[in-house]
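Cross-check.
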Amino acid sequence: MNDSYVHGYSAREATRLRDQADTLSALLHHDTHYSAGSVVLEAGCGVGAQTVTLAKNSPEARIIAVDRSRESLAAAHRRVADEALKNVEFMEGDLFSLDIEPGSLDHVFLCFVLEHVPEPAALLRRLLHSIKPGGTLCAIEGDHGSTFFHPDSALARRAIDCLVQLQARTGGDACIGRRLYPLLTSAGLQHVHVSPRFVYADSSHPSLVAGFTLDTFTAMVEGVRDPAILSQLMTPDAFAQGVTDLRRCAEPDGVFCYTFFKALGTKA
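Predicted model, tokenized:
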């Protein structure tokens, strides 16, 4: 896999990922459950932001959480330990070269991973090789092109586009959500179903305003300030105003909308 992760590995980013997972848990994972005895690979677990929810939703399944970053795995291990979860084990490794026996997994789960991979279809084919016939692969991704907000702002849109462009330079795709159906079907998965998960945040949903508009999305855009300016995608003043305009959407008359996509396919 590409060694570049556009959001970085800072403590602030780890906190953002945890905030995002906590805020979106019900939206993204209310229908994610694995049966007792199932072996589930969480491919690209990062700091364990999704791992805890997976383990809690399927307490009798065996969750194998894998990531290439030793530091992220250590953070994930601490989070799982803090929750006293006993059905998770960790593995360090690159997703393209995991030492997993073909056909040994019941399920594979990926969340916000494919967007960072230069060859997502190749990764899906590689992971599919490890799944038993009749097993499933689930992938969840966002799509920055689905962002709508009020009051609208050209500078806020430019700041968001900085993130899209920077991610593209590392071989990723910040708008990959819309591509999940063709990606999974081309990889060989059958019965692929994609469901959009829409986030709508206004002042009548204060937890979403705080947890998503500010602590998840705006924080994510703020996190690429330095590389955006160094790459001359925006001036410091313009970027700062773009972030200010995003924060404006968290005020009483503001609105912020975003769509995630959750895809599920079966191995023949």
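The mean pLDDT is 93. The two ends are 26 Å apart (CA to CA). Passed to J.P. for a second look.
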